[in-house]
Amino acid sequence: MNAKESNLSGIAQRFRGFLPVVVDVETAGFDAQRHALLEIAAIIIRMTPDGHLEPSAPLACHVLPFVGAEIDPRALAFNRIDPDHPFRDAISEQDALQRVLLPIRKAVKATGCNRAILVGHNAHFDLGFVKAAVERTGFKENPFHAFSVFDTVTLGGLVFGQTVLARTAMAAGLYWQHSAAHSAVYDAEQTARLFCTIVNRWHDLDPVHFWNANADESRFTENAE
Known about the structure:
The chain is of the alpha/beta class. The protein has 10 helices and 6 strands; from the N terminus they run H-H-E-E-E-E-H-H-E-H-E-H-H-H-H-H. Strands 1, 2, 3, 4, 5 and 6 form a 6-stranded mixed sheet that branches.
């Protein structure tokens, strides 16, 4: 390990410079270009001194539909969101991105990471809505990798044989409250717990392997050549 690598935080070494951040969005449809972003929640993943992962407190807000946004009633029936509810305390997409993404950028820098990587359940859906909002608003501080993600659908299928978030969470031994599901905060919290559970379980199977692999990454390149 060189001097630069030795100064990196444990989580930067664990994921090759990527900081995992769980994101969940609630929307008014499936098309990130046409349908409104209604809720966003993000949870930065941190590492304990013994190498285990744990979620931090959520960053979250309700979001006002952008001008010209389409609302699919079927989506609202599913997530039970009333965009016009007087107590939603919703803010603009620009303000929502500032509230959620700027702390993530600070965490990337503080941990010595290069970028954040979005963790989600069907993660490309969430990433697509984040990217669309960034493009609409001209927001310059997007910390996320443009296309790489960690998807708990894949991880859950591998480890537990389940792909639905509720079933995967319960298979992992996590409590699931059906009445709270489909809010961005609750789903992000459960996805974060699931991701940490899976990674920690793998870590406990072979806790030394990851540090040795990252400390001597050059040997993999040499062997490949």
